[in-house]
Write a structure and sequence with these properties.
single chain; alpha/beta; 5 strands; 36% helix
Length: 136
């Protein structure tokens, strides 16, 4: 179920620049914090989604995907695999174009459902690793 290079490239360059990062808070020791910083450096608007709804990297936070009052292109998922499937379902519900499960986040059934709904999907990869590699 690994995403092919073309899907990764399409999500990072053609899908749109508004990324909801589920699990992003002001906790600098969490991977989501650093990845969101890299995404911003590459021109993405990062929208924090976390129960605390904190403002992170200059962007207002929201408690859930459904609370975001504007369109989201990509949903980047930093929650554990047990919770990730529900987040993928929410991404479909809000009309996102793609779902990205971070390194270590794996749910084959969610991948199948999300792809069947017409969204691009990447699983067990990190955009902060993939995006700088695009130019190579």
């Amino acid at each position: 179920m690994d995403a092919d290079t073309e899907t990764i490239r399409r999500i990072l360059t053609g899908t749109g620049d508004t990324w909801a990062v589920v699990g992003l808070s002001n906790n600098r020791s969490r991977a989501a914090y650093g990845v969101a910083e890299v995404l911003q450096r590459f021109g993405k608007r990062v929208v924090p989604v976390h129960p605390k709804a904190e403002r992170v990297h200059g962007e207002d936070g929201y408690a859930s995907l459904a609370d975001i009052p504007f369109p989201v292109d990509v949903v980047d998922v930093f929650v554990n695999s047990e919770l990730a499937g529900a987040v993928a379902g929410e991404a479909v519900s809000i009309g996102a174009s793609a779902v990205w499960f971070q390194l270590g986040v794996i749910d084959e059934k969610a991948w199948e459902r999300t792809r069947a709904a017409g969204l691009d999907m990447v699983m067990d990869r990190c955009p902060a690793i993939e995006i700088p590699a695009l130019d190579r």
